[in-house]
Amino acid sequence: MEAVRARIASRALTNGDRLPSIRGFAGIMGVSPATVVEAYDRLVAEGLLRAKAGSGFYVSASALLPLSLPESVPAQARAVDPFWVSRQSLDAGPDTAKPGCGWLPPDWMPAEALRRALRNVARADASVLTDYAASHGSHALRRLLLARLHGEGINASANQLLLCGSGTQAIDLICRLLVKPGDAVLVDDPCYFNFRALLRAHQIRVVSVPYTQNGPDIAAFETVLATERPRLYITNSALHNPTGATLSAHNAHLLLNAAASHDLTVVEDDIFADFEPEPTIRLAALDGLNRVIRIGSFSKTLSASLRCGYIAARPEWIAELADVQVATSFGGPSPVITDVIANVLSGGFYRKHMEDLRQRLLKKQHEVATKLRSIGIEPWLMPRGGFYLWCRLPKGCDSADIARLALEHDIVLAPGNVFSAAQTSADFMRFNSAQCDDPRFWQVLAQAVQAGRAQPTSVESKHG
Amino acid sequence: MEAVRARIASRALTNGDRLPSIRGFAGIMGVSPATVVEAYDRLVAEGLLRAKAGSGFYVSASALLPLSLPESVPAQARAVDPFWVSRQSLDAGPDTAKPGCGWLPPDWMPAEALRRALRNVARADASVLTDYAASHGSHALRRLLLARLHGEGINASANQLLLCGSGTQAIDLICRLLVKPGDAVLVDDPCYFNFRALLRAHQIRVVSVPYTQNGPDIAAFETVLATERPRLYITNSALHNPTGATLSAHNAHLLLNAAASHDLTVVEDDIFADFEPEPTIRLAALDGLNRVIRIGSFSKTLSASLRCGYIAARPEWIAELADVQVATSFGGPSPVITDVIANVLSGGFYRKHMEDLRQRLLKKQHEVATKLRSIGIEPWLMPRGGFYLWCRLPKGCDSADIARLALEHDIVLAPGNVFSAAQTSADFMRFNSAQCDDPRFWQVLAQAVQAGRAQPTSVESKHG
């Protein structure tokens, strides 16, 4: 390969020239013909050569152009908007600390179980490896998910479940089906920032309701349903993102009654469910998948690399959602991927993995909360599980300012207002306990908090 | 597991009951405690039991409900619309013949290479198996794709390439960015049916231009640009779906000039490129990725199960498309999947695989064309490659009628008008040469054609 590259660089070979025959070049180089074939083939894959059937190998028309391929696309300077955390976290370099990101580090995830599952799926029928899935997704995972839903008291039948590309894509498909540009959609304040980015992409009017430690403020919820007539309400019932709070049974009941009297559809995004130490009430179970749509994924508990989510809903909605998914993606997740997930979920591994994770996270959450309190940052509540701590900063600190400063030190934080449709959370920040190990993070945070406290440009003077 | 199931069925154990301890049940059954743990765990995965940390296993609240899980969701009776072929093909049972579908059978696809690649990726870094990809997709595949684009004379830089979930999703993202409801989008008549389904999902006004054996009819193209002002034109330049025709160099030049004078953006969907015996002209190369957006995928050549597409375009569009993809799917394809593809593409395997496929298809295309001609069905042209034959039926035959009839015999066909925005193709049908082996198909087709010829309700009398 180096010999060919050198000849092209020195223009001994140029655009369109035929390369020496396999046999001839093998003789010149003193290697086997198979080695030359492999080298030529790799140069074809790199775009330097072109193979013509039955005629040999030729130098590509563009072989002389310099190929600039940086490791990654540089993150853009951007506003502290709902995209801020995702793009900065996704495109972070290996030396970046990410206490603001929404997932566990690789060494918390079950890599060995995934390796085993991949080796198992490598032995699957050829059709699993090469064919499209059925429109509702492959059977093994759908069967397991239906069983899990039944276990939660959600008695979905086979035509009430659709696999899709991710939890986010689940909501996207639902918005395509049930909402049109200009409609109002209700979210919690605060809520997962990407709900806001997604709704913006749909040109939807976002309205919000304050979130309390027991779910949405029900009086405010009823008012906003009456005045704004939202078509959808998107929420997390347990281990709410970012607060870690959990909906109470009483609020769940009131919420569903209010939804019924205003014909509101509720999307219950349950991706953190398996982090709960004990299951709590679910809107989908109370409602029996009538006006509640359940969505979920395994990105937080198994692997974010796998890309698979699901939707459980009324049969007629599932049929329409399957059509929308075919029209816009020609189907759902890869059958290779869904079989890997089914492989990990069946048997006892997953339950033990989640028990271990919960134990480890419980300890970590308390350690990080203690450290945060020691620099004046107070968790709004101690969540029953999961990895988020939603915290109030000391008086005078603006979380967007601190996040911008931290980014200069290669630290990605999640400032409060990216979660807040009403922009009420400038003095809050979400921390991911499992991503807080870097000492630089604690240094920069402590300094920033101290500086914020000392400054006259307080949050109140800027935002209140 | 059977013993537990029997106890639940006989109501010896019921909702909420605690199961015997591991040790106790192992004693009763005469097996090891590890066996009991495994059995309980599997029953948890099936939803029959629930594990409570530190307390044991309990019968699920819903364990007594019958679980009805049919192998697949029954295909719906539906109109012969743009969804018809996809849903019938995707949800076809194992005994269904699919001469209408748009992909190769599993035994034409490189299953062994995919198995090898999966085993290789099973050894990758834990982060590949568990983390999200960077916003533009993982590095290895992007690098190979850029090299391939350079090899075609499309000198894209790293910030001009985005990986996404499929070729279809590529177009979906582009529509989200560049088109709004009510805008016009131009397609060929005939064109790939799912373009029509996709545009319908976007509430886009579809306009069309007749497709000739050398590309779109350029006079008609210029007229429709002037009168309808479409925002986008979506096409396949080589081995056009469904016709198999290829754009001529002269038409490519005229088309781009017309596009420039009406500020039209062109989406060149190139998923059949690697089936060409020799590369032909590409709009993306002529234009230099200015107003042309190139999309592609490996669903037709490697595996439809893998779910990965790409978009090459102007840097500012790629940056915005990456944001839209994060907002609506939280990222692109699985890094596991993109590494599997990169693994298969690097080295010489892929080139040899495609040479073999082309040889095998060439033979098959001629065999099937000969058989079709023998029952009066005439290919509109013999394509230079690929697996489609776009054929005119004998006078009197309506392709939708024949497709409905064939479906009663478990045969999925692709009737002409699902491809035609202007509904001009009632007497055409698209056949997939690689999917025509079932003798039942030839029987049913020959009979249907004969019946159609004999009937007075001809296409002419019904459709004008």
From TrEMBL, chains A, B:
Domain of life the protein comes from? Bacteria
Keywords for the protein's UniProt record, in alphabetical order: Aminotransferase, DNA-binding, Pyridoxal phosphate, Transcription, Transcription regulation, Transferase
The answer to whether keyword DNA-binding applies is yes
Domain annotation HTH gntR-type: ranges: 1-62
Instruction: Provide the GO MF annotations for this entry.
Output: DNA binding; DNA-binding transcription factor activity; pyridoxal phosphate binding; transaminase activity
Signal peptide positions on this chain:
none
Family membership: In the C-terminal section; belongs to the class-I pyridoxal-phosphate-dependent aminotransferase family.
Name by which UniProt lists this protein: PLP-dependent aminotransferase family protein
List the taxonomic lineage: Bacteria, Pseudomonadati, Pseudomonadota, Alphaproteobacteria, Hyphomicrobiales
